[in-house]
Amino acid sequence: MKEFVHLHLHTQFSLLDGAIRFEPLFETAKKYEMGACSITDHGNMFGVIDFYFTAKEAGIKPIIGCEAYIAPKSRFDKKTRGEDNAYHIILLAMNNNGYKNLVKLVSIAQLEGFYYVPRIDKEVLKRYNEDLICLTACIKGEIPNNILKGTEKALKESIEDYLSIFGDRLFFELQDNGLEEQRIVNEKLIELSRYYNIPIVATNDCHYLKKDEARAHELLLCIQTGKKLSDKDRMSFQSDEFYFKSVDEMYNAFSHYPEALKNTLKIAEMCNVDIKTGVYHFPDFKTSDNLNINEYLEKKCKEGFERKLETIKNSYKNFNDETLKEYEKRLEYELNVIKNTNFAGYFLIVADFINYAKERQIPVGPGRGSAAGSLIAYCLGITEIDPIKYNLLFERFLNPERVTMPDIDVDFCKKRRDEVIQYVTEKYGKENVAQIITFGTMQSRAAVRDVGRALGMPLAEVDRIAKLIPLMSKSIKNAIESEPQLKQIYESDRNVKELLDYASILEGLARHASTHAAGIVISNKDLTEYLPLYRGQKGETVTQYPMKTIEKIGLIKIDFLGLETLTLMNDVIEMLKKDGIHVELDKIPLDDTKTYELLSSGDTSGVFQLESRGMKDLLIKLKPSKFEDIMPLIALYRPGPLKSGMVEEFIKRKNNPSLIKYELPLLEDILKETYGVIIYQEQIMKIAQVLAGFSIKDADALRKAMAKKIPEELEKYSEQFVKGAISNGINKEMAEKIFNVIRQFGEYGFNKSHSTAYGLIAYQTAYLKANYYIYYLTAMLTTEVNNTDKLIKYITECREAGVEILPPDINKSDKFFKIEDNKIRFGLAGIKNVGDAALDNIIAVREKIGGFKSFGEFCEAVDSRKVNKKVLESLAKAGCFDSMGLKRSQVLYLIKERLDKSIKRNEKNIMQATLFDMNEDVHINGYFFQVPDMEELPYNEILAGEKESFGFYFTQHPLEPFEMFIKNITKFDTQSIKEMDIQEDVDIVGVVNNYKEITTKKGDKMAYVNVEDKKGIIEAIVFPDIYSKSIDVLKGNKPIVLTGSIEKVEESSAKIRTKKIVPLEEIIKKMENTLVLRLDCKVFKREEMKRLKDILTSIKGYTKVLIELQLNCDIQRPKIPEIRIDREKINILTKNFENGLKIYEIKGETVNEILS
Prior knowledge:
The chain has six domains: 22-209 and 244-270, TIM Barrel, CATH 3.20.20.140; 293-437, no CATH class; 566-768, no CATH class; 790-950, no CATH class; 960-1065, CATH 2.40.50.140; 1073-1155, no CATH class. It contains 46 helices and 28 strands. The longest helix has 22 residues, at 293-314. It is an alpha/beta fold. β27 and β28 form a beta hairpin. Strands 1, 2, 3, 4, 5, 6 and 7 form a seven-stranded mixed β-sheet that branches. A five-stranded mixed barrel has the order 19-20-21-23-22. A five-stranded mixed β-sheet has the order 26-25-24-27-28.
């Protein structure tokens, strides 16, 4: 019987080089009756754990390996470039010790030997070669390379080196891939095999699964190297043989060398790595008082409970002995579960770094995820949510019947999160702590763009095709089926078909590795005892295994998340403290009237989780009156619940209690707080337990099955539910009805613990905004100081609320926004081109000298290396020097003259004459300048300069004079368009912020235009047919009206596909005119009036229409609130009504008859 296994194979984790996915690989291996398969990705072990377990599930023996890079000399030698920088070598783990050695080698290559690629050397290979098999690799291996070079001495030395390291674990690797160099290498290796008695082994260096994927793989290489398929100098495999060949194909290729095939089986038998799960490797937590870890946890919990008891009592109207017993019983229960599952250390570790943060006034969130359901977490200070008061389930966090590691993620102030990570690193040792890797994949649109670039297709055409793929589409193939326009061009255009077919093959492959934004892993010993490490883009140490894999092998993973909102609230509290107002967030009342008034009004910009347009509408309808009304909002404002009707039902019942009903009295206690609507996963679990006698384990499994919509599982639990309910005295019909209800809502059920924790942050931010409005707005502006779009939005909100924003002033402004005389002073950090170094220098000098008396003194005092010409111009255009008695034109003149004389940056500027007397010569650093008594810049230039410095119009927006007209032109603005959930046509009035012109494949011009109004900036795509008619309008530097359809980018972002662009002044001219329709009642009866109304509605535009009726008519004017029509379409009226209609046009005081 022919047998063979592949020992040299590159999965998708040979990033942008391998294209093999695990599941199709093992399906193919089973089809070929191969009992084993290896993974040997380039220089990494990213995918080995998933590979291992997926192979096991498929009944395939996994062989763990790596195609390592080996430096010609030392791994520390980083001078040699090009192909001589590193050779290839295949290393396969024979057992767990070999696996550990492979982990060590791959980690050392990344952390010590990285130079273009991660490299080991022979010195480290001698240390960590035990239980590793070595294959000599492809033609880029050291031995094959020396064969091709014909250097006999070097060849002999390299063979002897590897023999001395690996002995009988060394194999000469033969490949048959159609390359002439490989044929030469094979012949020589066979000869050397006999001479040195080194066995040969056949491989195929698999990079893709099927032969017909070779061209797609070439495109993948182009994406990796930034080349086009047509480039002659691009990297290429120059063969279509690097695929996962069948046993027969390998036997045909190596028919003369059957031992090379048999040796693949021999090696497979030698490789027996056994990776265990379910064993946890917690860091050692040192306890005091000679207590063991469980005793110490109990001690800290009981101490914490005593500290919290007063707060707990105050949160109840009637706290009694029974209530106390409930808490004590819950505490005992949770302690027992945690002790029995050996997670005491985990809780203590998390509590330790959270309390470290709190002691140093680093803001920490009140909780996140299911951890808020634990009373122990509350007592230890990990969370600030009382789970009993809010009826949260501990079992949703830690199920005692199905032990998996609990997951505690923590929100920290974004500015100071790194301090906590540093503490953890120092406490447990830098070798034991690392950040976690994450992989970016080729999503549908990105895959199309990548492949289009590699095929050499015009960028604009590729972009147009990519944007036809819906954002939520499961795949390119799914998009072709569901989008008629995409399907039409796919079927009619050969180039588009090729593009989408190749993109479909590559779609979903791993594209790049990066560092997870929050994940940290902590181990009880050097991490390389458990997993390989990677060198991040900034030189940071990162795991090579992603988050889920880390949990699978038993290491602690914790998300240290940076939450901007915590920074915002802390800024508010610090500002209040300076003014003698002390606010403690954990002590604010949860029944504050002003807070609920603010929420009910929808004034929630800047309020955590509640500031989108849709959420504001929801708040206005709901009118929350207690904290328990806020919690569900976090759960309900998601696509599923919004589409399901749950939201409307919840609001109706809240506002009309008579609509609240329960199928059974037993359900009231569970659903009372959500007005009888199932919103939380915990409610589903409770219903299953109370009505049908489910165990905690089964109730949790039911929750998961509902969330994942697994039909077989749901059917199984349906039977169990009905049977259990009947045994509890509930009739079958009612039991089935209730299960169907929880099944319907269960699809969208949300984690109540998370809703409660994030609901609390939402309430806290609303409370601060409602009670300390100007403080909150100031902190909001500081938080978004680097986000121009948000700054525009919040400054507009301030002004609409009557809060004045004072302009930046070089003597009065701080780095960030501040309160000044109940107004907000603009912060210098909000000015473009003024970096931290310049700001810190300006503020430090100002504090030292007590303020700048003149522009000359400013220039003399600051460090010109930091406060350079660009900085000075930005400050001047923003008006920072206005208070010094200078016009902006004069300041800009001085800056230009001073720096155009090539004054050295490192010299101190000496201004010996005052700049207040503009008619005198000014002596600056050895140069004399006549500062003329200049006119101020024209107003439009001042505004343009501010736009340059702020990124938006500050003193006055160009649209302000037209606000009354704009209200009649459109109901949309940039902010509302971005927040819209539905696709529809919109009009937007704005000014062109900037635009980028590009050329299509056909040579036509099109553009991407940024349109700005008072609420923000939005991008509009202008295709050639519209662009050719609109170039002059876009270049005109005047307000425009742009009409188009919304294209959603993500939840709070959108673009507009442009259909029409018209100058605003043209629309206003039409609006200033009025058309009068005089109707003859003898002709216009009710039927004609209805037809008139329909026609007027169909030709909407900007010209106002008045309707006059003859006296004594028995008909009424059509009920249209305000009629405005398109003046150009008036001929439609004349065609439809030849008799009984006269049309007049009023222009100013002139009346002209158009039709009689």
